[in-house]
Amino acid sequence: MQFFVVSLLFLLALLRLSRASFYDNPVLELPPVGGTPLEELERKWGTDFGFTGITTYAHLPHTRCLTHPETLYDIILLGIPFDTSVSYRPGARFGPRAIRAASSRQTSFRGFNHRAGLNPYTSWPSILDCGDVPVTPFDNALALRQMSEAYLELLSRRPLSYDESADWVHPRIVALGGDHSIALPALRALNKVYGGAVAVLHFDAHLDTWHPGKYPSAWFDSPGSQSDLTHGSMFWIASQEGLILNDTSVHAGLRTRLSGDDFADYDDDTRQGFLRIETDDIDTLGTQGIIDLILTTMGTETPVYLSVDIDVLDPGIAPGTGTPEPGGWTMRELIRILRGVEGLNIVGADVVEVSPGFDDRGEGTALAGAQVAYEMITSIVKGGLVKRGLWVESEHTRPGTEKLGLKGLKDKVKSVVADVEEQAQKVITPSKGKDEL
Fold first, then answer.
1. Are 303 and 249 in contact (CB under 8 A)?
2. 250 with 269: CB under 8 angstroms?
3. Is residue 260 situated within a structural domain?
4. Which residues contact 413 (CB under 8 A, 6 or more apart)?
5. Looking at CB atoms within 10 Å, which of 36, 188, 249, 297 has the fewest?
């Protein structure tokens, strides 16, 4: 009898489902005379899927900030589509567009950074995509002036969350390059608004502190020629102008070939005050050793310009770049290091040299660039919380866990191994059946 009742109920449910139709939608009604309430419109249409919407970085609101001084912001993404100072493969002018497209799966409703314990897009700052600086590709001297004035214009505006006690007097710009020479106008502008030199944390396969005369030519005198500006000389120029703090700046991920027959390039770099961390050092020091070396050198109070050339990654991971060098770091290693140095006082940042014309079909280089920008934004947002005294570590740690030291990691491994062995034993030694008793 019970079986009959259950079967009958099941058949009635199937019958009800069979009457349902794909076309059984509510009757359409005109919006109210006064218009649909804004809250209702936002609820219905205010969220994009990763593949919908206008292409801004992480679906952030877009304003052409350079021509809208009334728009207030705390952190901005700014495209610098400039690549006419490259020494090998051009194409990074399309980098900002590629990075934005690759960031489309980042959204505010799924933006929680589990490594940092926060969602930068729903935290305290106003974050905007301010579009691109319209940089000329025909005259590098003019382009340098355009980029410098654009940076200075945007940095000199008071941020929405102005807080002098929290050192939030100027907004932060995360630039999407473009070739690496865009760091020079950024440093010039930072020097103006902060009234002095800043330290540079420079992730790159190359030194980028080369004297312009290292590119041999009988056609120009150096220094002094317009051709001095290259994506390998901008830090040399910045050092000559007193824009970079000596002895607190760091290169990380180096593996470049040097000029001539000796270490003269390194000697010149040392005179400019950089600490050099080679790509191969990670094999000896590990990621934590790299992190400790950076933090020991730079401290947490010094204003830092964070500059990431995507060619710090191995070209097997990020082929779409202007000067690829085999033997680089993995993306996992780079993320680990970026998260490890989140306590730095970052006043500006860039991710550069993404050249989508040389990227793979899966847009791996652009995806890496988008992730780097995300990690930068997260660190800046978290730094603002710490400065305001609003960061409580225990509130941002995954429940039931804590940041693991070496001992904690070993304990975690032992626990996992024990669980696996226990499950394997159950499979190998099943419980005995009646016939075996």
1. no
2. no
3. yes
4. none
5. 36
